[in-house]
């Protein structure tokens, strides 16, 4: 698409927004229902595209993308009226009689740029919030998830008019051209390097930006935890989507004694969830492309593999892999792993674990598997992250009422449910003062004795 076409697309969406039709609750409801219909009527095609791009099985596709989105949309439909309701603001005595309300206003035309790892969820979840808030949108799916991108570009125009939601496919060139235009909000999900490009482009138009980024989410485990349950939950969260999840536990931090007990339980949990040969398991996904496959296999060099490690370039398969004896300086600990490799890192105790967590800045989530109330309090007070989750990992994304987002290097702003609605709204105060009685006269010059008493 030439750049002038992008301008036309944007103008079409803006004209529709400016007409005011998107403000009504009926418009918002109908568009949310359309998105739901798109997901329902094309579930099989969407799941097939996810299978082609990521080897994702149908159950996982439903759990983390199609059904996940439908429940987000149902939540938005249930709460929309309440979210849109103006909230009363208190007025001080000095301004009385007067009233104030906080009114959620739609922003306008928003640009949503998604990554490849959950290519449908991470495009349509912000879209649901944007529509609920009464905006029109341009969607830029990730070119890396080729099948999903093509299918989204085919389906969206069947369910939305060009002045409601538009799709622009493409990579760096197309995104760069899109970013040159002025939007009312940009919602970007992806890596921190590109986030800097997005922020710079947004600065030219003073466009507000939400950044959903990544990082190294640690999982602290101590002996007060139920280690068998912990192992099952860690294995599920880490190897879901073959480890290509922004909030996957990146590595485990534990004392030697805990690791010795946890290791066989993790190995058993991998066998239970994916069988003796995970390459034959329908539940186990594949690496998105050769570039990421090579990066991950490269990360395994010089690592002590205690389980897994098998890989097959042709199939883009890397077995669920546990490694240990990894120094802080090892490449595995220098970047977000974003694949099915789980380092088990020995630390002396909680203080050392906290020092390690803090060394990586503020991740999307800090996980802790513990029953110890002091440990929980200490982690809450001495670490910072998008979310703090006890005795579970990744699952918190399934609750529409839990705001999802990062802080610092892991991002800014939040999505899902009410938080997503607010992201795509401006909370505009509307204040109304009556002409009579004219109490403001009391604070106007010439200042008399009344004001001096104040
Ligand atoms: P990606 O390569 O698909 O890129 C994301 C988007 O940025 C794509 O739409 C792509 O076209 C665009 N893009 C790439 N280069 C660009 C450039 N130079 N200029 C403008 N746009 C450009 O995905 P990715 O970045 O590899 O995604 C993985 C990262 O995303 C990981 O760090 C992961 O943790 C993070 N992530 C975060 C979340 C979250 O919700 N916080 C969710 C998923 C992934």
Description of the molecule:
The chain has 454 residues and is an alpha/beta fold. The protein contains 15 helices and 18 strands. The strands form four sheets. It has a seven-stranded mixed β-sheet, with helices on both faces. Strand 1 and strand 2 (98-106) form a beta hairpin. Helix 2 (25-41) packs antiparallel against helix 5 (121-132) and helix 5 packs across helix 14 (417-423). It is globular, with a radius of gyration of 25 Å. The N and C termini lie far apart (64 Å). The mean pLDDT is 96. The structure holds nicotinamide-adenine-dinucleotide.
Which features would summarize this protein structure in a list?
15 helices, single chain, 454 residues, 18 strands, seven-stranded mixed sheet, globular, alpha/beta, binds nicotinamide-adenine-dinucleotide
């Amino acid at each position: 698409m030439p750049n002038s076409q992008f301008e036309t697309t944007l103008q079409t969406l803006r004209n529709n927004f400016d007409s005011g039709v998107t403000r009504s609750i009926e418009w918002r409801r109908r568009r949310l229902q359309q998105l739901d219909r798109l997901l329902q009527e094309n579930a099989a095609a969407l799941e097939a595209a996810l299978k082609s791009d990521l080897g994702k099985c149908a159950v996982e596709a439903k759990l983390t993308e199609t059904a996940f989105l439908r429940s987000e949309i149902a939540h938005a439909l249930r709460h929309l009226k309440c979210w849109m309701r103006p909230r009363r603001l208190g007025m001080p005595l000095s301004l009385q009689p007067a009233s104030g309300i906080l009114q959620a206003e739609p922003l306008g035309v928003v640009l949503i740029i998604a990554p490849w790892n959950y290519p449908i969820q991470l495009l349509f979840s912000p879209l649901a919030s944007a529509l609920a808030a009464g905006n029109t949108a341009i969607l830029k799916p990730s070119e890396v998830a080729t099948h999903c991108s093509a299918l989204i570009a085919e389906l969206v125009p069947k369910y939305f008019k060009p002045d409601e939601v538009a799709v622009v496919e493409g990579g760096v060139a197309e995104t760069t051209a899109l970013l040159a235009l002025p939007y009312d909000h940009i919602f970007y999900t992806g890596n921190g390097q590109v986030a800097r490009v997005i922020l710079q482009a947004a600065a030219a138009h003073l466009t507000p930006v939400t950044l959903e980024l990544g990082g190294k989410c640690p999982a602290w485990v101590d002996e007060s935890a139920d280690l068998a349950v912990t192992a099952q939950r860690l294995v599920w969260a880490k190897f879901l989507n073959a480890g290509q999840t922004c909030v996957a536990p990146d590595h485990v931090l534990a004392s030697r004694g805990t690791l010795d007990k946890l290791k066989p339980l993790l190995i058993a949990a991998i066998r239970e969830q994916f069988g003796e040969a995970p390459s034959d398991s329908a539940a186990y996904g594949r690496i998105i492309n050769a570039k990421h496959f090579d990066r991950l296999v490269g990360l395994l060099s010089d690592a002590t593999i205690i389980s897994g490690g098998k890989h097959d370039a042709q199939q883009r398969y890397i077995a669920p892999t546990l490694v240990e004896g990894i120094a802080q300086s090892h490449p595995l600990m220098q970047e977000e792993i974003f694949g099915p490799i789980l380092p088990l890192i020995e630390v002396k105790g909680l203080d050392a674990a906290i020092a390690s967590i803090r060394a990586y800045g503020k991740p999307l989530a800090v996980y802790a598997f513990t029953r110890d109330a002091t440990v929980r309090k200490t982690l809450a007070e001495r670490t910072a992250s998008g979310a703090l989750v006890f005795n579970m990992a990744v699952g918190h994304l399934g609750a529409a009422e839990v705001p999802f987002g990062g802080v610092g290097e892991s991002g800014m702003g939040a999505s899902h449910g009410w938080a997503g609605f607010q992201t795509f709204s401006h909370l505009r105060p509307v204040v109304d003062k009556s002409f009579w009685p004219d109490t403001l006269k009391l604070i106007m010059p010439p200042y008399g004795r009344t004001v001096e008493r104040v």
